[in-house]
């Protein structure tokens, strides 16, 4: 399978087929990126398309110094910031409309959105980039311009916070393993290791 | 203060589950995780959180490329367009360029100010002060590019295996390792003959300053970069530029053709070294080492022997992992050499062009005379000022001391002459 970077260089050289392959690989992930962060599905689709338009416009200046995936999500993050500035007020994730979740997971999906909304903004972004976009720690650090160690510590805190939310009153999907109360709370657990 | 009970921090344990921990720490984490119920519970919780998060699914619209994008694709793309979006690396590059422009402007102001006292061309003066200029950015650029190459080139079986993991795979990696599928690493082999291409080009140009700018333009058009660059500006001969350029192998001929246009070609050479056998051998050894590591990991997982045996297996795993990383680095280096051809370019300035720098015209002589006159005037004023500052106080003191006796003597002489 041709690497993303090779496809990008081919597209830079004028290959439409290479762009179509990149579009097929990243359109749905980018739509998911915007859809999980914006209330309007149509706007999410628009921004996903604008990401590719930005790629087309800036193709002549592309240099293979970073992964194409990081490049695309970098563009997407900037578009998202611009979109949020336009909206002036940040829309809580709990106000998102009903999600077209698959299967019977809609209720848990709603809980997940509400739980994520309770996280601090940076921690939520790190957690979502890791879990949904599956970026590595270094890629997240590069995108958010923070140290890798900060990514790791914030990611850990956010996951522990999600665990607490899960234990405190969530109703997870019956098909998934339930969270049993473990003796170590976040702070207590960390103290034991110090 | 760490205790012996938990040799790894909790966030390290999480990083291990994410596959983000270095090998040595990962081995420690794995060994600890297998015998620590508390950390096992934490690992289970972290995995559960990840599974819960993945319940929030978003169905992508899929489909064909929208008309808006198709229309943009159909339009001719400008060479340089100021897009409103840049990746982090590009943002950093922009900041660097802004600072570079600011520093360049400040340097230009300084040079213009000093040029009143100098007759040389400002850029020539700058270059002469830096007889051998090595561009620091090129080394960083090369390293950044080489760092990116392995991602493109690493098509080995292990990478494919990791990439095939699903969205939940990151946190489930440890769980899968406990019951691993029978993975057999095989060398994929090179797609074709692998040739390390090297070219040499020596040119003589009349317009040295333009040649440098055109060189950068050629590199940009052919997606290349500067491996090393030195500019030499001796006082009694023409300037010269020596550069090691790296361009994609398929762009070599086009890049050389463009470089030839910089001036008169004094010499040209090309060399190709086939490294297919070396690459295949490396791939085979890499696949063997990975299989060995896999077997050792399986052995460690199903161990029933003594602690010393376990430690011996872990030591062997670390050694094999070190070998794998060394061979991967070697393979990446080899792939980079194949993918990017090397051009050793030497550009010399025509000697006649150097003679033009010397002001032999009447205007030049008049200008030099004016500058020397200005220097003389300023030095004269400064000399008088220095004299007054250094001898003034003493002269004033002696004048004050001698003023009244001298006046008395003078009056006495006048009275006597009047009488």
N-end to C-end Cα span of chain B: 110 Å
Most extensive chain interface and residues per partner: A-B, 85 and 65 residues
Shape assignment of chain A: globular
Tally of DSSP helical segments of chain A: 9
Shape of chain B: elongated
Nearest-angstrom radius of gyration of chain B? Answer: 37 Å
Strand content of chain A: under 5%
Average residue pLDDT of chain A = 78
Can you tell me about this structure?
The complex is a heterodimer of chains A (194) and B (419). Chain A contains nine helices and no strands. The N and C termini of chain A lie far apart (46 Å). Chain A has 194 residues and is an all-alpha fold. In chain A, helix 6 crosses helix 8 (148-169). Chain A has helices at residues 4-12, 16-35, 41-57, 68-87, 106-117, 121-131, 137-144, 148-169, 186-192. The longest helix of chain A has 22 residues, at 148-169. Chain B is of the alpha+beta class. Helices cover 62% and strands 12% of the residues of chain B. In chain B, a hairpin with a 7-residue loop joins strand 3 and strand 4 (240-248). In chain B, helix 1 packs across helix 3 (37-53), helix 2 packs across helix 3 (37-53) and helix 7 crosses helix 13. Mean pLDDT of chain B is 74; it is low at 80-87 and 116-183. At the A-B interface, helix 1, helix 2, helix 3, helix 4 and helix 5 of A face helix 1, helix 3, helix 4, helix 5 and helix 7 of B.
Question: What labels would you give this structure?
Answer:
heterodimer; A: 194 residues; mainly alpha; 65% helix; 0% strand; B: 419 residues; alpha+beta; 12% strand; elongated
